[in-house]
Design goal:
Elements lengths: L1 H28 L7 H23 L2 H22 L8 H36 L9
Helix pairs in contact: 1-2, 2-3, 2-4, 3-4
Amino acid sequence: MPQRFLAVFQALARLIFVPAIAIVVWGELEPGGTGPRVWDKLLHFTAYFGLTGIATVALGSLRGALWAGLSLAIFGGVLEIVQSFVGRDAEWGDEIANVIGVCAGVASGLILLSVLRLLFFRQRLSEGENGHGPVR
């Protein structure tokens, strides 16, 4: 059961990744995006934390998580440059918040996957390999 849960969880992460990217792109390139500077950095952190956490769960491996994290950090930098062409201000602070969010997202996603896999492993041990009782 937990392995099936993990597979469904990863499929759901793959399903919501593209809409999540679209929301982040819209949020970063929307003209007139103004507000308190601290709030702006928090939004950048949260967006890239979420994207990277979703990607990490969807990919399910350390290597995939690291590639996704690097790609999303670069993607955030490119969006910062594009902002200057749509009437927004590109800021180094925004990219720093993006990268911190990416790092936290990779770590959180890997921890979540590890916990889910540990739960599955523990259940398999308690049921035995054939599912008929504890291993002795």
